[in-house]
Design brief:
The protein has one domain. It has no helices and 4 strands. A 4-stranded antiparallel sheet has the order 1-2-3-4, with no helix packed on it. By secondary structure, the protein is an all-beta fold.
């Protein structure tokens, strides 16, 4: 029997403007992935994005909360 495996993950990126040192975009994804049955898995994830110079009317910070299912092969 295969051992139960919980996966923790984090990915991020930072893009800085060469034209304006105060302008940047930061994106990150952090979460947990849990095997359910066989190759089926569930993922709980939080995405955080920050834009230092957003468009008019837009917020600098953006959060997304995801609960997804998937298949791993």
């Amino acid at each position: 029997m295969e051992a139960w495996k919980l996966q923790v993950f984090h990915r991020h990126s930072l893009n800085w403007s060469v034209e304006d040192a105060s302008a940047y975009l930061f994106n990150s994804a952090t979460g947990l992935r849990v095997p359910i049955f066989g190759n089926l898995q569930a993922t709980a994830q939080v995405n955080f994005d920050r834009n230092s110079n957003p468009a008019a009317g837009a917020k600098k910070n953006d959060y997304d909360y995801l609960l997804t299912g998937g298949y791993n092969w």
